[in-house]
């Protein structure tokens, strides 16, 4: 019987999976494969390993225990398995990461040397990165026109779930990896949990998403990012249930588009993963040395003395996730109040975020740092107190994550250093003066750009 391999990666689901469907249409039998690549598994945080292990266990369950997990270098594992089962085609979804693209090219070459081939019927994004260009044929560098083109392009309708299919028997598996112990309180992984979470969000919070998404205490965001990261659900499954005439629905679609946009940026400029996309701020003075390291440690631990910043950082460690508004404020504080290289913050986020996605995380950091495409101007410095007052006016988010401030009443929750006697016991004074550091950030900006 003819055989094909379905190489699962960031599409850990059965429903609406064009890669799986293409393999079923091509061959009489399939081998559902996941390669546990040490080059990805090793550097991953425990939070992401835990979630991935659970998502694989869920996928294996939905495949009636027939998922084949092999450990090793995909360039060796995939061709070897194709020869083992005599599969003429390996189907997989696309990737945009520098490592992933290099790996896929090497796998394709190894297969071609044995008269086998790969097919890529899908990607984890609504529009395959690289498919949208300006009228001049250039890649987009600004989000708003990209969003318009993205809306005009639209998304294909989700496809159904295959009910019955034949799997090549007797293929040995190394087994789903054991989930590591984690301290964070993480969401349940897998396609089933993704469907449940999406259903709750789309029946409720999406209606007011345009207004409520920035309210840190309301927790009215979708919380779908970990499931999108691993493809437990695809964004087109969400778009199919949205009415873009409704403000909340359209705003949520815009957030999905940001995810596509940053994948598009990484596809076009792979070096932007860890290097500034724009050289506008090349040579800007950064703080280094013992004092910078002490400030970075205080930022990581949520001990800066600025409650909204500290609440965000403590949420990150406790939940492996952070509210998006807090992500922007904490990032701005590191880059523009502490003058620390954005890559240090991006790495710390990836060390903890269960939704840690290279393109979204690192280009989001560059947006704040003023070095990316469509970036916020460097002179836009988030005031952590004003952000707190605006997006957590009652201090509920702060009190949830900073127990030392739980009994502080009124507006002082945003500036506990103004209390008589200073902050409550156990909570630090601000490690820097925001007004002074804002001026310092602007001075450093002017020094490299000549602009005031």
The overall number of domains is 3
The general outline is globular
Instruction: Please name the CATH architecture of the largest domain.
Output: Orthogonal Bundle
* CATH topology title of the largest domain: DNA Cyclobutane Dipyrimidine Photolyase, subunit A, domain 3
CATH class of the largest domain: Mainly Alpha
Structure description:
The chain is mainly alpha-helical and 452 residues long. The chain folds into three domains: 3-121, HUPs (Rossmann fold); 192-268, Serine Threonine Protein Phosphatase 5, Tetratricopeptide repeat; 290-447, DNA Cyclobutane Dipyrimidine Photolyase, subunit A, domain 3 (Orthogonal Bundle), CATH 1.10.579.10. 46% of the residues lie in helices and 6% in strands. The chain contains 19 helices and five strands. The chain has a five-stranded parallel beta sheet with strand order 3-2-1-4-5, sandwiched between helices. Strand 4 (87-92), helix 5 (98-112) and strand 5 form a beta-alpha-beta unit. The protein is globular and about 80 Å long.
Brief synopsis:
With 452 residues, the chain is mostly helical. It contains 19 helices and five strands. 43% of the residues are buried.
Could you list some keywords that capture this structure?
Rossmann fold, DNA Cyclobutane Dipyrimidine Photolyase, subunit A, domain 3, 452 residues, globular, 5-stranded parallel beta sheet, Serine Threonine Protein Phosphatase 5, Tetratricopeptide repeat, 6% strand, mainly alpha
